[in-house]
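WARN  no MSA supplied for this record, continuing single-sequence
INFO  ligand: pyridoxal-5'-phosphate
INFO  echoing inputs
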Amino acid sequence: MKLPPRLKLASLPTPLRPLARFSAEFGGPRIWIKHDELTGTEISGNKVRKLEFTLAQALAEGCDTIITCGGVQSNHCRATAVLGARLGLQVHLILRGERPATPDGNLLMNYLAGASIDFVPERDYHRHPEIAADLQQAYSRNGNRAFFIPIGASDEIGLWGYIEACAELKRDFAEHAMTPDCIVTATGSGGTQSGLVVGNALHQLGSQVLAFAVCDDEAWFAEKFQTDVRRWQLRYADLLPEDLNVDSLSPRTLDSYIGPGYGRAGAEVFETIALMARMEGLFLDPVYTGKAFHGMLQEMQHGCLQDADNVLFVHTGGLYGLFPQKENFILAAG
Ligand SMILES: *Cc1c(COP(=O)(O)O)cnc(C)c1O
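INFO  complex generated
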């Protein structure tokens, strides 16, 4: 299949390995990890797979500036800020929330990477598309050309990131002589999940894709999927196989593990993070992967994953978001 413009930014392919000690101790389906936190140290995580396509598009349009948005600890904004520095693009971030007295985690990295940052209070954040459009005009008056990337780079361009990750997974599965019954991911802005659903069909992986929501509900992700896939089909009609049929696809989202809210997790999630760190040296984050992994373990015990033999968990990154939440871990003294 022909692909749209793409930059080589991530370290690929990422490793895939079974969680041997965890499975030996707890039984149940075999858990495999796709290590997408290893796409790069500073650009760690899932966003760079999408940004390979998004930033290629920005360069193709002759842009010298990138505007994007997200939470104060957004992994997407951090990956964009770092990649901007690498590509010689100015990055301007619109972050939801107050400016903290001391920047930590992803935010610290944004500053170090030289991004311009505007903080927009929670109550005004719904206006971020207009704020971005105003910024774009201001850059244009100064003779710059600014490209806007929506939250999480989840749109019809970024969708390619996890469609193409499925080509990589196809080779992984052949190498390990294993087809997981289920591919599990955290879902936030929907692009990873949607890409996996489309890629799973397009590359005929033969798995199911199950996503654990960290913010919005199941209906929101269903709607987001339809919108992005429709736009993708229209925009890339020339590239797609003629017999492609994605109309029957729909995402499968579990929204019962969101807990207290976006970016906030219950004590059980922090316990799971600590357990996996000491048992496997696997570091999950409290915003995305820790919640999804915890949900997956629950569903393996008494839910829709009970009958699976092999389950693949996509580690989508998030490590730097662990540090700003350090007070939620109960550490043994001494
Ligand atoms: C953004 C993010 C996700 C969710 O991916 P979406 O494509 O936005 O749904 C999952 N895990 C981590 C660590 C992320 O940063």
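The chain has ten helices and ten strands.
INFO  checksum written, moving to next record
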